Amino acid sequence: MSAPLADRIRPTSLDEIVGQEHLLGKGKALRNIIESGQLPNLVFYGPSGSGKTTLARIIAAKTNRKLHKLNGTNASTADIKAIVSELDTFAAPNGILLYLDEIQYFNKKQQQSLLEYIENGKITLIASTTENPYFYVYSAVLSRSTVFEFKAIKAEDVIPAVERGFEFLRNERDEEIIVEDGVSKHIAYACGGDVRKAMNTVELCTLASPIDGSGRRYVTLEIAKQLSQRSSMRYDKDSDEHYDVISAFQKSMRGSDPDAAIHYLARLLEGGDLASACRRLMVCACEDVGLAYPMIIPIVKAAVDAALQVGLPEARIPLADAVILVCNSPKSNSAYVALDKALDDIKKGHSGPIPRRLQNKHFDGEDNQNKGQFYIYPQDCPNHWVEQQYLPDAIKDRKYYEFGDNKNEQAAKEYWQRIKGKKL
Fold this sequence. Notes:
- By secondary structure, the protein is α/β, with parallel strands linked by helices.
- Helix content is 48%, strand content 8%.
- It has a five-stranded parallel beta sheet, with helices on both faces.
- Helix 10 (155-173) packs across helix 12 (195-208), helix 14 packs parallel to helix 16 (274-289) and helix 15 (258-270) packs antiparallel against helix 18 (316-328).
- The longest helix is centred in the middle third of the chain and has 19 residues, at 155-173.
């Protein structure tokens, strides 16, 4: 079985790599390092199909060191020991270049086993990961490496690579392959900037296209659409992209941008992540709308319940209603901020005994010279309020809650100023 097109057509020089101009453009730091011939330990971080593995292979081809490749998903400590055993032998007289793909799957012990050798330079490490290395790579390895972030490739930059893929197949198969207008653009955009996925889609479209009586193969836009369904979105519930999407979702609702919020809701639902969409929607209703429109909380809760009850795809309907409602509602985080202030006091030990009048006591001991609880029942007082101390003595003047500037809280503020007879 032949290798996938993405491997057969893989670039062999820096200039052939699609995108990553911020790293590999003329005069950029990483390009200068590679061309200097003095290779440090490197960590490549970025989304799939952005050129990390391709660049590592190009670097390996430029060095006279023995190249070993490991993948964190299936490599073991025994594999590392086998590589180490070659050091200082005729098998690797100039040291070893280790390309470790998906390093995030190596546990701490496995990563630590490399430290001594990357420290003394006998092993030069090039590691790649789709996850944030500052979360997944052992700090001692990071401190001995330079991290370069690969960016997702723009779809328009993938179009030339798609066209090159079709041309490669024409020559390789010795066939006349006719590509309908719009196919290359559709594949580039449908694959979301993932060059590997785009190349494999090119090959699939070619194999799926019929040959006419004169031996010509026609790749139509319809075939391209069939074979690239649901392929445009990068989404993994355990990846950085997952946390970026749900963060953008909540921040868009908080920022009152219904178009952006609906876009990120669509990403979550297309990825099948109904739970995250519901959770962030409820949090935003409570945290960011809050007391500016308190009734939004049961309304959003009802929409979430309906969504969970009917499931996808119909769940998108009540969720869309709720998301737009949250976006268009006035915002207040006054209750959220007040509670955080109180929690901060508690964590710092600023509290004290509960005032006597609030305690759940109905009798006094013989040692109490001032018998009586002295609690005044507000419901028996005019306007159902009476001034008395509720906070502990140590923080009796502490103020946590500040009225928000929205209509609802300002109405409450005006009411209590009138009842309490003082400026709040």
